[in-house]
Write a structure and sequence with these properties.
Blueprint lengths: L1 E3 L7 H8 L5 H11 L8 E5 L9 E6 L9 H11 L1 E3 L3 E4 L3 H13 L3 E5 L5 H9 L3 E4 L4 H15 L2 E2 L6 H17 L5 E5 L4 H10 L4 E7 L4 H8 L25 H7 E7 L1 H15 L5 H11 L11 E5 L9 H10 L1
Parallel strand pairs: 3-12, 5-6, 5-8, 6-7, 9-10, 9-12, 10-11
Antiparallel strand pairs: 1-4, 2-3
């Protein structure tokens, strides 16, 4: 028996309407209205590029790492749980970490049972947060694809509702609300740099802008999923390694986002792990923002000059995740007591 969630005034008629909404501006705006009471409107900060050695450039950072659960993923999580009929068995998700945290958080807030499958590469910070939200955690395999397969087996056994991390319409619509907010906060952008894993974030953001600005994808060299897909003309299996493997290294990008990327993503830039590490360091030094590797990847393209803007180009950067153990206050306290 399925028990529809009725939260935030979402009734059966609205659920049916949402089932027919395309991944485009109108659908994203409607989803934003539904999830607005449950998410944070994250801040945007304009920074003099000279602070990072990028003289003559102003950079607009959207600090989506301050979102519930530490990443943009909360948007897609609430979009799924608030616009789909939920079974009594609850929800299940496979995740490198951040999607699992987001689903666990949304399920906790809405009183829904949740079971999260993660690979062994998922960081302790993320697995601890999933457990803290009360979700059941299962370690399955070494990479995301193996965790996904295990979660699909559980769906078949339990009847729980699967929430895909990136290849699901509701997920894309939810992530697209980042673009809606970015445009409201910085309406004069020329270019927006967005990290790419499975493509839910860049797919949703690109669908919102619809070609009105330049959208540039940024991927680790060790996980060139979108770059390889665009080259092949379809999603294809790619390498899945590197420093950001727990957030930016699925085997391939999603089928739903791919035509959006073909139409609206201007280019994809690949960055080495060392550039991502340096971006993390600089964001901490200059802004006191502690990001996970995937959260710093978009800025790495600008900082390393793998993406070189034109002289008057107004550039935005999504800082999309902050679930990191880089800041360890307990350790700092222990060390200070020894001094």
């Amino acid at each position: 028996m399925r028990v529809p969630v009725r939260a935030n005034g979402v009734d059966a008629g609205e659920l049916q309407m949402m089932a027919n909404v395309a991944i485009a501006r109108e659908g994203i705006a409607e989803v934003e209205r539904i999830i607005r009471p449950h998410i944070r409107r994250t801040p945007l900060i304009a920074v003099d590029g000279a602070d990072f050695g990028l003289e003559g450039r102003d950079v607009r950072f959207k600090l989506e790492l301050l979102q519930h659960g530490g990443s943009f993923k909360a948007r897609g999580a609430f979009a799924n749980l608030l616009t789909r009929d939920l079974p009594r068995a609850g929800v299940v998700a496979a995740s490198g970490g951040n999607h699992g945290v987001a689903i666990a958080f949304a399920a906790m807030k809405l009183g829904v049972p949740a079971k999260i499958f993660v690979p062994s590469v998922a960081s302790k910070e993320k697995t601890d947060r999933i457990r803290a939200c009360g979700a059941e955690l299962v370690i399955a395999g070494e990479r995301y694809a193996e965790a996904l397969a295990a979660s699909e087996e559980w769906v078949a056994q339990s009847g729980a509702m699967a929430v895909h991390a990136y290849d699901q319409r509701e997920t894309l619509l939810g992530q697209g609300t980042v673009g809606l907010e970015f445009e409201e906060q910085a309406p004069d952008l020329d270019t927006l740099l967005v990290a790419v894993g499975g493509g839910g974030l860049i797919g949703g953001v690109a669908a919102w802008y619809g070609g009105r600005i330049k959208i540039v994808g940024v991927e680790p060299e060790a996980a060139p999923t979108l770059a390889n897909a665009l080259r092949a003309g379809r999603p294809v299996d790619s390498e899945a390694g590197g420093i950001a493997a727990d957030s930016l290294a699925p085997k391939r990008v999603g089928e739903l986002m791919f035509p959006i990327a073909q139409n609206y993503v201007s280019s994809v830039v690949l960055v080495p792990d060392k550039a991502i590490e340096q971006a993390q360091i600089e964001l901490w030094k200059v802004l006191r923002v502690a990001t996970e590797p995937g959260g710093a990847a978009a800025f790495a393209a600008l900082l390393s000059r793998r993406y070189e803007p034109a002289s008057a180009e107004r550039v935005g950067v999504l800082v999309c995740g902050g679930n990191t153990i880089a800041v360890d206050f307990a350790r700092a306290k222990r060390l200070s007591s020894l001094g």
